[in-house]
Amino acid sequence: MSSYGNYLKNLFNEPAVERVQSRRIRRLLVLAQLAWIVAAVPAVTMTEHPWPLLLWLPVFVLLTGRLNMSVRGITEIPTSHLDEMQIARRNHFAHRAHQVGNLVVLGLIAAAFIDDVRLMLAVWFAAWMTYFGLPTLLAAWSWPDESPEDE
Predict the structure, then answer these.
(1) Beta-carbon contacts of residue 66 (< 8 Å; ≥ 6 apart)
(2) How far apart, in whole angstroms, are the C-alpha atoms of residue 43 and residue 54?
(3) 110-138: per-residue pLDDT in tens?
């Protein structure tokens, strides 16, 4: 077992994580993350300077971390540190993310036909950020509330 894997498993099982464990909070985090990704489009297209995106990035990282915490890091922890149920859940969310990701890729192809290069790049950026976060987003959206005996 790797020390990094142990560190992640311990980190995502801390008592402070319980604040973001309810389905309602997880779904709010998913909606906030998607809204923040969409907000990147005007941040990229409104100015030629990179500072709006530099201000955007820390909030994105914070939201991504909270989403990972809300699903106990199941999409980040190495497989060797997960039990069979967690591995099955992760595989399920990865499969669903692949299915939804195909639609995102179609959106990327369609965005190639946008005449405004900056808008096209902004849409691509938002689509890629969504694509790579899909397993965690889907897990956070559909993860059931944990009962006390599950812990």
Answers:
(1) 20, 29
(2) 10
(3) 888 888 888 888 888 888 888 888 888 99
Question: Which residues are CB-contacts of 132 (< 8 A; sequence separation ≥ 6)?
Answer: none
Higher pLDDT, 27 or 76: 27
Q: For the whole prediction, is pTM greater than 0.85?
A: no
pLDDT digits (tens, 9 = 90+) for 88-112: 888 898 888 888 888 888 878 888 8
Task: Provide CB contacts within 8 A for 12, sequence distance 6+.
Answer: 68, 69, 72, 73, 76, 77
Angle, nearest 10°, between helix axes 51-70 and 23-45?
160
46-85 as b/e: b if 16+ CB within 10 A: eeeeeebeeebeeebeebbebbbbbbbbbbbbeeebbeee
**Predicted pLDDT at 6:** 67
Tokens 């599950």 sit at which residue? 150
Backbone angles phi, psi at 75, to 5 degrees: -90, -5
- DSSP of 31-93: HHHHHHHHHHHHHHHS-SSSHHHHHHHHHHHHHHHHHHHHTTTTTTS-GGGS-HHHHHHHHHH
